[in-house]
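Good morning N.,

You mentioned wanting to compare the apo and holo forms, so I went ahead and generated the holo version with zinc ion. This is what I fed in:
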Amino acid sequence: MQNVKDMIAHLVSFDTVSSKSNLPLIEDVKSYLADLGINSHLVPNEDGTKTNLYATIGPNVAGGVVLSGHTDVVPVDDQNWSTDPFKVVEKDGRLYGRGTCDMKGFCAIGLALVPEMLKADLKKPIHIALSYDEEVGCLGAPFMIREMAKKLPPIDAVIVGEPTNMQVAEMHKGVHSSTIHISGLEAHSSQTHLGVSATRYAAKIINFINDIHDELLAKPYDDLPLEPNHSTINVGRVNGGIADNIVAKDCMLTFDYRVLPQEDHAVIIDKIDAYIGELEAEMKAKHAACSITQEVVWTPGFAAPKDDPAKSLAMRLAGKNETIAVPYGTEAGQFQNDGGYSTIVCGPGSIDQAHKPDEFIELSQVELGVQFIRDLIKHQASVGK
Ligand SMILES: [Zn+2]
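and this is what came out, ligand included:
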């Protein structure tokens, strides 16, 4: 257990807040694996400032299980921490530190147990997959997943170790986040007929989105274990205009649409896009240089099919006979969609402690995580015998 605790403290000691590079952490993991005779594959971002890493332990044959984790963490700015967030402190049966629970804890358990994997004479491999930029819209993983799907032999299951208290999570919503920039024409506020108000058009879009929210609210799925059991849409930020007496030239707003995996998110998005198109045409008719533009980040939702191999395997290893749904997004939908992989979400720690000051993981959760991976090692060492 000490080696696992040491590995957690080691990974936490790298400040891998998403805005920073994760290269020092990845280089360290790469050389740790190299010392154990394991070759790492890096899948970097375009400018080479961040990278994914995947590696195979055991024979490079079909039937592998992927342990997936992200290396980035959320910021600590403006949070009131009792201790240094990048220095793990053990207290009252807990390990405190940024990322202990979300989700360097899981990554560390997998890495610390690599020597046990090597000793176990695996018949089928265990792959480790570490991503970047998960916390800012799951931006990094798809590049790695597509390469894995091309280069690795067929995979039996992907386990995304986000904190579920070691319960087996088979569903979460997708997230469509959009930043909208409205560009109008400024004028003196006494001369509204000479301007095109960006805030006026922002208000129209906000009303439109709020009406959609009320429609979604009226469409709950009674049999879903999700709270709330309907899709949601919310305008999170609005920022427009520069003075009381100026018709606003610019306005930006953001919305976040969390969609059930049972629903096609394109239906609502097409509706919003069409409405924005109408508004833009109306603005342009008044002044040709007006525009409404959008930047979109889409992270797909996730639902495991009925008789899913990853689900059965995780339930067996975690000793659970039921599954849960989780309220947050993960890379699971990307492993399913981009890799065609049977995928499940199951990891130590509680999401209640994630993203907060004094983030911690219970040592009892770490122990359950270790047991889970040890049982997976036994499974991969015995399959096909
Ligand atoms: Zn996470």
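The longest helix spans residues 265-286.

Happy to go through it together on a call whenever suits you.

Best,
F.
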